[in-house]
Amino acid sequence: MPTYIGLLKLTEQGSKDIMNAPDRIEEGIKLYQKMGGKVLGVYLVMGEYDYVTIGECPSDEVQTAFALALSSQGNVKTTTLKAFTAKEIPSILNKLKKQ
Q1: Number of domains forming the structure of the chain
Q2: How many Å separate Cα 61 from the centre of its chain?
Q3: What is the pLDDT of residue 99?
Q4: Backbone phi and psi for residue 62, each to the nearest 5 degrees, phi listed first
Q5: Residue 95 C-alpha from the chain's centroid
Q6: Backbone angles phi and psi of 92, in degrees to 5
Q7: CB–CB of 4/85 below 8 Å?
Q8: Which residue in 24, 36, 51, 67 could disulfide with 8, CB within 3.0 to 4.6 Å?
Q9: How far is Cα 87 from Cα 99, in angstroms, rounded to an integer?
């Protein structure tokens, strides 16, 4: 399955309700799994973002639906990155040669 990295920022609402964040994270993990995803990690981080998530999901469409479901709750804003493994890099670079 494709790998995705989520960069999440708390909204004002999410910051005010921070004490319930662990419960919301668990609910998010359950939803991701229900949608066919596999959570590889959820991290509270310092810096520009508040959380970083790593997961595998069946498709870009399912990942996008999940991100929309999260952001529609009003607690976080999401940015999604599609990630490629080191093993996938040669195949990607080979496509450059064919141009």
Answers
A1: 1
A2: 13
A3: 65
A4: -65, -40
A5: 27
A6: -65, -45
A7: no
A8: 51
A9: 21
Beta strands in the chain (DSSP E): 3-10, 38-44, 51-56, 76-83
Give me the amino acid identity at 1. Answer: M
Task: Name residue 94's amino acid.
Answer: N
pLDDT for position 28: 97
Q: What is the DSSP string of the chain?
A: --EEEEEEEE-HHHHHTGGGHHHHHHHHHHHHHHTT-EEEEEEE-SSS-SEEEEEE-S-HHHHHHHHHHHHTTTSEEEEEEEE--GGGHHHHHHHHHT-
> What CATH number did the domain enclosing 23 receive?
3.30.70.260
pLDDT along the chain (99 residues), means of 10: 98 97 97 98 98 98 98 97 96 85
Query: In angstroms, rounded to a whole number, what is the distance separating the alpha carbons of residues 40 and 6?
Result: 11
- Stated pTM of the model: 0.90
The C-alpha atoms of residue 28 and residue 6 are separated, in whole angstroms, by 12
